[in-house]
Amino acid sequence: MFAIEKAGWSKALIIFPLSVSCKMVFRQVDEKVEKIIWLIFSALLLVIPFSFALNIGSNQLNIPAEPLIAVLALFFLYAIDFHSLRTSKFLKHPITLAGLAYQGWMTCMIPFSSDMLVSSKYVLVNAAHFWVFYFGFYYFVKILDKNVFTWVRYYSISFVMVIIYSLVRHGYFHFRMDAAPILSHPFYNDHTLFSAVATFLLPFFLIKIKRKGNWSYINLFIVGLLFEAIFFSYCRAAWLSGIVAIIFALLLKTFKSKYVVLSASLLAFAIVFAMFFPLISSQTQQKFVESKKNSWIDQLRSITDFKSNVSNLERINRYRCAYRMWKDRPLTGFGPGTFQVAFLPYQRPEEMTRISVTTTRAIDGRPHPTGRGGGAHSEYFQALAELGTPGLLTWLGLIGISLYFGISLYYRSASKGQPVILALLAALVTCFSHGLINNFLHSEKISVLFWASLSLMVFLDLESGHKSKNRIS
User: Fold this and answer.
1) How far apart are CA 389 and CA 277, in angstroms?
2) What mean pLDDT value characterizes the chain?
3) 215 or 36: whose pLDDT is higher?
4) Are the C-beta atoms of 409 and 457 separated by less than 8 Å?
5) First to last CA, the chain
């Protein structure tokens, strides 16, 4: 039985017992080992927002998060019963299978990579995230007997401190827009990642600003901080992803058919692609004079500026490189994690901007600052260039399957349980939509939330077919 907190908002996020076969997935380990795992888990969730990159030669290590992830991964290898796992409903769930397919294709592409060492490291990190945050979430709630919101709350405690730290620093610069990208350093080296995490967390706290009809001032305070973090990050992708999530939530509340919502979502994606494809596939020369942005209104207007906005033009540069890379290797791609090097010769002088890079290292020999260096600025184009057509399809399949089961679960659930599922879906939609123009899921700072949310969706979907006294309330 899962730990049930008496607070009203906590009850809404309780995970339920699954089938007997699922209960046997983990071995009976020593109680001391369970306590050690719990301590490591607690430490990991608390320190991830405070982790920073440490340069070790030509490599970077995020400390202390990555060492703790490695330790937890080894503990799970000891604790899990692989024979029982193979027969569990959790492993056989379509979302789990889609995640395994994505990770599996990534692994299979290592031998075809343009740099096998880079791809091996990249796959190892992503596999560790999937193992610890997706399967580990199951262990967290099933064996450690913790309420699911403990996961979000532990992460949020530290993230709120980072927000306050960033806002105080921003105040010294009078909340200038050009200072936003560096304010969360060294913890979040990219304001897009910082704002993506804030946008992801926001729905979970929005649904709980009232407890049993009374205002929860702690949650209200956190909601206010998250809104400030999103606004003063001046990240257009975060603003847009929030709007997309609101529209998605309104569709869920308005229509009672999952097919209508899915069709509307697919149509919206097709429209966005139809708008961007001519910009991506065009070979015309770009001549521009860089625009100046003095306010958040100018920042918002710049979203559709593809003539003078350097950020937009650099994204188009990267997308075109990814498109050309895909045309050269449509099946295998260039290998996981290789875009940062492989795209350099695919750039064309007439398409480059003042923030384009031509080398793998900055002038001081260190990796380029996040956002300047090697990302494709899109999860979708990065998958296409690095993993080929099948890789992109596995990524899209994971998104489609997750939305399908999440929407189905929402309509099957009792009215008291729907706000939790709505928050879960809205958070994932912010991630999927933000991923159109930024790529950050390789970072543990958001993958810890992303994979755990998908794992939570599997739990709720499996439980929805069982009669239980424990219901979402």
Assistant:
1) 16
2) 82
3) 36
4) yes
5) 16
Q: How far apart are CA 403 and CA 85, in angstroms?
A: 24
Helical axes 31-47 vs 65-79, angle rounded to 10°: 150
Rg (CA), the chain: 22
pLDDT-derived band at 89 (thresholds 50, 70, 90) equals confident
Number of H helices and E strands in the chain, helices first, is 20, 4
Asked if pLDDT for residue 417 goes beyond 80, the answer is no
Q: What is the reported pTM?
A: 0.87
Cα–Cα–Cα angle for 156, 160, 164, rounded to 5 degrees = 170
Select from 467, 368, 451 the least CA-distant residue to 98.
451
Position 415 pLDDT exceeds 80: no
348: which DSSP letter?
-
pLDDT of residue 256: 77
Name the H helices within 233-257: 236-254
What CA–CA distance (Å, rounded) separates 471 from 109?
43
pLDDT at 393: 96
Nearest Cα neighbor of 233 from 203, 202, 208, 207 is 202
Query: For residues 11 and 208, what is the distance between their CA atoms, to the nearest angstrom?
Result: 11
Range from 3-17, 39-53, 83-97, 316-330 carrying the lowest mean pLDDT = 3-17
Q: Which residues pair with 80 in a beta bridge?
A: 26
Separation CA 64–CA 66 (nearest Å): 6
Closest CA to 249 of 398, 403, 379, 399: 403
CA dist., res. 80 & res. 85, Å (int): 8
User: Is the preceding omega at residue 330 within 30 degrees of 0, hence cis?
Assistant: no
Which distant-in-sequence residues (6+ apart) come within 8 Å of 345 by Cβ? none
Average pLDDT of the segment spanning 230-240: 91
Three-state DSSP at 454 gives: helix
Q: How far is CA 403 from CA 224, 425, 426, 452, in A?
A: 28, 7, 10, 15
- From residue 12, alpha-carbon distances to 212, 442, 445 in Å are 11, 30, 25
Q: For residue 303, what pLDDT band results from cuts at 50, 70 and 90?
A: low
- CA proximity to 79, closest of 47, 16, 35: 35
Q: Per-residue pLDDT averaged across 371-389, rounded?
A: 86
Helix, coil or strand: residue 162: helix
Would you say 332 and 388 are in contact if contact means Cβ atoms under 8 Å apart?
Answer: yes
> What is residue 179's three-state secondary structure?
helix
Q: Is the pLDDT of residue 48 over 50?
A: yes
Q: Alpha helices of 80-190 — where are they, by DSSP H?
A: 82-86, 89-92, 94-108, 116-129, 136-142, 148-172
How far from the centroid of its chain's Cα atoms is residue 60's Cα? 20
